[in-house]
Specification:
By secondary structure, the protein is an alpha+beta fold. The chain is built from 9 helices and 12 strands. It is elongated, with a radius of gyration of 23 Å.
Length: 326
């Protein structure tokens, strides 16, 4: 066999392997999407949708680099399969007239010992309402001492699943959501009433179970079930804001079910939700993270602007929103 014959054989083998990889990739991307409401491993793939999209784009480019229409067709298939979940994302809340308030939600990370970086973020220092998860006594004392917010929620962090609200507006009421539930892993959302001018605004702080195992996945589902029921019980005209670390990516059907059943709107981008949770083991490259921290709002609340703050010693980015209250 001559050199050309050997080259042709290698190319055929490379095409075969590429097409097989493209088909398996596309099948896995689509099957995991449709099974994620029922199968734990499939729902875990939703945490990786941005990474899968980049993988599909890579297979697309590689397919077109080979002299084979099958490889090119496989590349298109892989890219389309990876892109489909992005077309299923809900539209964000629209801009509406009303009183503007600024809000920050952040998981400060329980092992983060220094609040100074967080307090140095200009959008944090000027925020009207701050909702925090994994709050520690050290952080609570530091934020109280900062004097930035004259009002705060209870200092009993254990009772509130280590969540905390600071506010420039008076906090009128605070209560645990569905404390009787025994299937949420001991986690419960907290409902606050805040007086903004002459209008009572309801703020929910959320931090469901991380779904790293099938039992914990079911606990997160139960938490979101209770949250949805609480939101549906709110009077339709009440302005409601829900903020926190959801431990649920934008593509998960459990998050999308909550939106569809309540009529609430997300504030995330419809086409590429910004990553908020990232690994600190690999240089804190935030672009390699996934979107699980977010703010959603009831139909009467508008969205003027949304951005992610800088890193501050946590493995989460702060979510910064400017909202309008009718």
């Amino acid at each position: 066999m001559g050199a050309f014959g050997k080259y042709a054989r290698v190319v055929r083998l490379l095409v075969l392997l590429t097409v097989a990889t493209q088909v398996v990739f596309a099948a896995a991307a689509l099957v995991s999407l449709f099974l994620s409401r029922h199968v734990w491993a499939a729902d875990m793939a939703n945490f990786l949708r941005p990474h899968l999209f980049l993988g599909g784009a890579g297979l697309f480019v590689f397919g077109f680099a080979l002299p084979s229409r099958w490889a090119r067709a496989g590349g298109v298939l892989a890219l389309v399969a990876a892109a489909v979940p992005f077309f299923l994302l809900p539209a964000p809340a629209p801009s509406t007239p009303g009183t503007a308030i600024s809000m920050v939600s952040a998981n400060i990370y329980v092992d983060n010992p220094d609040p100074s970086g967080f307090l140095a973020i200009p959008e944090v220092a000027s925020a009207d309402i701050v909702v925090l998860q994994e709050m520690t006594p050290l952080w609570q004392d530091a934020l109280v001492a900062s004097g930035l917010w004259p009002h705060e929620s209870s200092r009993d962090l254990d009772a509130n699943t280590d969540m905390k609200l600071f506010s420039r507006f008076p906090v009128l009421d605070e209560r645990t959501v569905s404390p009787q539930s025994t299937d949420t892993g001991g986690r419960f959302a907290v409902r606050y009433e805040v007086l903004v001018g002459e209008r009572t605004v309801v703020v929910y702080a959320v931090h469901p179970q991380t779904p790293r195992t099938p039992p914990m996945w079911r606990e997160r589902s139960a938490y979101l079930r209770d949250l949805a029921e609480a939101l549906k019980s709110e009077p339709p005209e009440t302005p409601v804001i829900v903020a926190g670390d959801w431990n649920t990516p934008s593509w998960s059907p459990f998050f999308q079910d909550l939106l569809s059943s309540t009529g609430y709107r997300t504030t995330e981008s419809r086409w590429w939700p910004a990553p908020t949770r990232f690994s600190t083991r690999y240089g804190s490259v935030t672009q390699l993270g996934t979107p699980i921290d977010r703010i959603i709002v009831s139909p009467s609340v508008g969205l003027e602007d949304l951005s992610m703050g800088p890193t501050f010693g946590s493995n989460h980015l702060p979510v910064i929103a400017r909202l309008t209250i009718p």
